[in-house]
Write a structure and sequence with these properties.
The protein is of the alpha+beta class. It is about 55% helix and about 20% strand. The protein has four helices and three strands.
Length: about 110
């Protein structure tokens, strides 16, 4: 499979998962989740789903991974791909890291 197909599948999964979390999930914590990226394996067998949330990240990550089968079954109905990948939800720390860097830069500029 080409890299482009994997990226397209990841983009489709990201879009549909965002819709599922907002419209179909019954857990209110999922309404505060933002899917930031999806990395799909070359064989479409596995997908890492990166997310952020304003709620307790450990609890939300655990709950998302527990509901991964539910999300996968909904994705299978909505996506036009032969095999729906297994989903692994991972908290995206890059946004927090970026905010820390920005805060440090602001503090350095205040000192000048």
């Amino acid at each position: 499979m080409s890299k482009l197909k994997g990226e397209r599948a990841g983009s489709d999964i990201q879009r549909e998962l965002s819709n599922i979390l907002l419209l179909d999930a019954k857990d209110e914590d999922f309404k505060h989740v933002t899917i930031t990226d999806v990395e799909v394996a070359n064989d479409l067998g596995f997908a890492k789903v990166y997310f952020t949330t304003t709620d307790n990240r450990e609890k939300v990550e655990r709950d998302l991974n527990n509901a991964a089968g539910f999300f996968r079954s909904l994705l299978a109905e909505r996506l036009l791909i032969r095999h729906t990948p297994e989903l692994k939800f991972i908290f995206d720390e890059s946004i927090e890291y970026g905010q820390k860097i920005e805060k440090i830069i602001e503090e350095i500029h205040k000192e000048d």
